[in-house]
Write a structure and sequence with these properties.
By secondary structure, the protein is of the alpha+beta class. The protein has a domain of 112 residues. The chain is built from seven helices and six strands. The chain has a two-stranded antiparallel sheet. Strands 3-6 form a two-stranded antiparallel ribbon. Strands 4-5 form a two-stranded antiparallel sheet. The longest helix is centred in the middle third of the chain and has 14 residues. It is globular. The N and C termini lie far apart (43 Å).
Length: 196
Protein backbone atom coordinates (compact mmCIF):
# COMPACT_ATOMS: atom_id res chain seq x y z
CA UNK A 1 0.00 0.00 0.00
CA UNK A 2 1.46 3.36 -1.03
CA UNK A 3 1.55 6.05 1.63
CA UNK A 4 -0.19 9.33 0.91
CA UNK A 5 1.90 12.43 0.42
CA UNK A 6 1.93 14.79 3.40
CA UNK A 7 -0.40 17.25 1.63
CA UNK A 8 -3.05 14.52 1.10
CA UNK A 9 -2.96 13.10 4.64
CA UNK A 10 -5.67 13.99 7.10
CA UNK A 11 -4.75 16.34 9.93
CA UNK A 12 -4.89 13.46 12.42
CA UNK A 13 -2.44 11.51 10.25
CA UNK A 14 -0.08 14.50 10.02
CA UNK A 15 -0.20 14.91 13.80
CA UNK A 16 0.43 11.19 14.28
CA UNK A 17 3.46 11.28 11.96
CA UNK A 18 4.90 14.37 13.70
CA UNK A 19 4.88 12.75 17.15
CA UNK A 20 8.15 11.77 18.80
CA UNK A 21 8.59 8.87 21.22
CA UNK A 22 9.89 9.93 24.60
CA UNK A 23 13.18 8.30 25.60
CA UNK A 24 12.57 8.99 29.30
CA UNK A 25 13.01 5.85 31.40
CA UNK A 26 11.21 2.97 29.70
CA UNK A 27 8.46 5.17 28.35
CA UNK A 28 6.92 4.37 24.99
CA UNK A 29 4.69 7.44 25.21
CA UNK A 30 4.72 9.98 22.41
CA UNK A 31 4.57 13.77 22.40
CA UNK A 32 4.06 16.39 19.73
CA UNK A 33 7.03 18.78 19.68
CA UNK A 34 5.91 22.20 20.88
CA UNK A 35 6.43 24.09 17.59
CA UNK A 36 4.74 21.39 15.49
CA UNK A 37 1.33 22.43 16.79
CA UNK A 38 1.66 25.81 15.07
CA UNK A 39 2.92 24.14 11.89
CA UNK A 40 0.00 21.71 11.77
CA UNK A 41 -2.97 23.60 13.19
CA UNK A 42 -3.14 26.46 10.69
CA UNK A 43 -6.14 28.43 9.48
CA UNK A 44 -6.29 26.28 6.34
CA UNK A 45 -6.11 23.05 8.35
CA UNK A 46 -8.89 24.22 10.70
CA UNK A 47 -11.06 25.26 7.73
CA UNK A 48 -10.43 21.88 6.13
CA UNK A 49 -11.71 20.10 9.25
CA UNK A 50 -14.56 22.59 9.88
CA UNK A 51 -15.49 24.03 6.47
CA UNK A 52 -18.59 25.87 7.75
CA UNK A 53 -16.90 27.50 10.76
CA UNK A 54 -17.38 31.24 11.10
CA UNK A 55 -14.58 33.73 11.70
CA UNK A 56 -15.29 33.87 15.45
CA UNK A 57 -14.83 30.10 15.80
CA UNK A 58 -11.70 30.11 13.61
CA UNK A 59 -10.23 32.94 15.70
CA UNK A 60 -11.05 31.20 19.00
CA UNK A 61 -9.56 27.93 17.78
CA UNK A 62 -6.35 29.46 16.43
CA UNK A 63 -5.76 31.85 19.33
CA UNK A 64 -7.04 29.93 22.33
CA UNK A 65 -7.77 26.29 21.56
CA UNK A 66 -5.26 24.76 19.13
CA UNK A 67 -4.54 21.91 21.54
CA UNK A 68 -8.21 21.31 22.33
CA UNK A 69 -8.96 21.25 18.58
CA UNK A 70 -6.05 18.88 17.84
CA UNK A 71 -7.07 16.54 20.66
CA UNK A 72 -10.64 16.42 19.31
CA UNK A 73 -9.28 15.65 15.83
CA UNK A 74 -7.15 12.84 17.27
CA UNK A 75 -10.34 11.46 18.87
CA UNK A 76 -11.72 11.15 15.32
CA UNK A 77 -14.39 13.77 15.86
CA UNK A 78 -15.21 15.11 12.42
CA UNK A 79 -17.31 17.49 10.38
CA UNK A 80 -20.40 19.00 12.04
CA UNK A 81 -19.73 17.22 15.36
CA UNK A 82 -16.27 18.77 15.54
CA UNK A 83 -17.66 22.20 14.75
CA UNK A 84 -20.46 21.74 17.29
CA UNK A 85 -17.97 20.67 19.99
CA UNK A 86 -15.65 23.60 19.29
CA UNK A 87 -18.59 26.06 19.41
CA UNK A 88 -19.68 24.64 22.76
CA UNK A 89 -16.10 24.87 24.04
CA UNK A 90 -15.84 28.47 22.81
CA UNK A 91 -19.07 29.52 24.57
CA UNK A 92 -18.04 27.70 27.75
CA UNK A 93 -14.53 29.23 27.73
CA UNK A 94 -12.93 25.77 27.55
CA UNK A 95 -9.54 26.36 25.93
CA UNK A 96 -5.91 25.20 26.05
CA UNK A 97 -5.50 26.80 29.48
CA UNK A 98 -8.27 24.47 30.76
CA UNK A 99 -6.15 21.36 30.13
CA UNK A 100 -5.55 18.76 31.45
CA UNK A 101 -8.95 17.26 32.16
CA UNK A 102 -9.39 14.53 34.75
CA UNK A 103 -9.56 10.87 33.82
CA UNK A 104 -13.31 10.21 33.62
CA UNK A 105 -12.72 6.68 34.89
CA UNK A 106 -10.94 7.63 38.12
CA UNK A 107 -11.58 9.80 41.13
CA UNK A 108 -8.47 11.99 40.97
CA UNK A 109 -8.30 14.84 43.51
CA UNK A 110 -5.64 16.68 41.47
CA UNK A 111 -8.13 17.54 38.71
CA UNK A 112 -11.74 18.58 38.66
CA UNK A 113 -14.36 16.63 36.78
CA UNK A 114 -14.35 17.09 33.01
CA UNK A 115 -16.09 20.40 32.31
CA UNK A 116 -19.86 20.29 31.91
CA UNK A 117 -19.49 21.52 28.33
CA UNK A 118 -18.45 17.98 27.33
CA UNK A 119 -21.89 16.74 28.35
CA UNK A 120 -23.50 19.17 25.90
CA UNK A 121 -21.49 17.84 22.92
CA UNK A 122 -22.99 15.02 20.86
CA UNK A 123 -19.40 13.99 20.09
CA UNK A 124 -18.81 13.14 23.76
CA UNK A 125 -21.99 11.28 24.63
CA UNK A 126 -19.99 8.05 24.87
CA UNK A 127 -17.66 7.75 27.86
CA UNK A 128 -15.11 6.04 25.62
CA UNK A 129 -14.81 9.20 23.52
CA UNK A 130 -14.28 11.33 26.65
CA UNK A 131 -11.64 8.86 27.83
CA UNK A 132 -9.98 9.08 24.41
CA UNK A 133 -9.83 12.88 24.84
CA UNK A 134 -8.24 12.37 28.26
CA UNK A 135 -5.60 9.97 26.89
CA UNK A 136 -4.82 12.01 23.76
CA UNK A 137 -4.36 15.28 25.67
CA UNK A 138 -0.97 14.12 27.02
CA UNK A 139 0.51 14.09 23.49
CA UNK A 140 0.07 17.88 23.43
CA UNK A 141 1.05 18.70 27.02
CA UNK A 142 4.75 17.82 27.19
CA UNK A 143 6.38 20.53 29.34
CA UNK A 144 8.72 23.25 28.12
CA UNK A 145 11.75 23.70 30.41
CA UNK A 146 13.73 26.86 31.20
CA UNK A 147 16.95 27.61 33.05
CA UNK A 148 15.07 30.00 35.35
CA UNK A 149 12.75 27.36 36.82
CA UNK A 150 14.39 24.61 38.83
CA UNK A 151 11.40 22.77 40.24
CA UNK A 152 8.48 21.53 38.19
CA UNK A 153 5.24 20.07 39.48
CA UNK A 154 3.96 17.95 36.59
CA UNK A 155 0.86 15.78 36.33
CA UNK A 156 1.62 12.08 36.75
CA UNK A 157 0.75 11.31 33.11
CA UNK A 158 2.99 14.01 31.62
CA UNK A 159 5.15 12.82 28.76
CA UNK A 160 8.69 14.06 29.28
CA UNK A 161 10.18 15.33 25.99
CA UNK A 162 13.52 13.50 26.13
CA UNK A 163 14.90 12.52 22.73
CA UNK A 164 18.05 10.81 24.00
CA UNK A 165 19.02 9.03 27.20
CA UNK A 166 22.41 7.66 28.16
CA UNK A 167 22.12 3.99 28.99
CA UNK A 168 24.71 4.37 31.75
CA UNK A 169 22.85 4.79 35.02
CA UNK A 170 24.68 6.30 37.98
CA UNK A 171 23.72 6.25 41.62
CA UNK A 172 22.93 9.52 43.29
CA UNK A 173 21.93 10.58 46.79
CA UNK A 174 18.25 10.41 45.92
CA UNK A 175 18.27 7.40 43.58
CA UNK A 176 19.39 6.66 40.05
CA UNK A 177 20.70 9.43 37.83
CA UNK A 178 21.06 9.45 34.07
CA UNK A 179 21.97 11.99 31.43
CA UNK A 180 19.39 12.92 28.81
CA UNK A 181 18.64 15.42 26.08
CA UNK A 182 15.44 17.47 25.91
CA UNK A 183 13.83 18.06 22.52
CA UNK A 184 14.85 21.57 21.29
CA UNK A 185 11.18 22.67 21.03
CA UNK A 186 10.85 22.06 24.78
CA UNK A 187 13.81 24.23 25.82
CA UNK A 188 12.66 27.80 26.26
CA UNK A 189 16.03 29.31 27.09
CA UNK A 190 18.22 26.23 27.43
CA UNK A 191 21.19 26.18 25.10
CA UNK A 192 23.78 23.41 25.31
CA UNK A 193 22.74 22.60 28.85
CA UNK A 194 23.11 19.01 29.96
CA UNK A 195 20.21 17.85 32.12
CA UNK A 196 21.03 14.99 34.46
Amino acid sequence: MALLSNSKRSLSDRIWHAQVTSKFADSRECFLPHNELDNLVTKNAVKEEMPDAGEDLLTFTLQNAKRVFAIAVMCEIEDERLEEAMKIFMHAGFCDESLPIKNPKEDDPDYGDPPLCFGRCRAFTRITRLHSFYKNQWIFLAPVFTTTTFRYSLPVNSVLPFIWKDTTVKSGTFGQVFEGEIHPDHQDDLRNVSIS
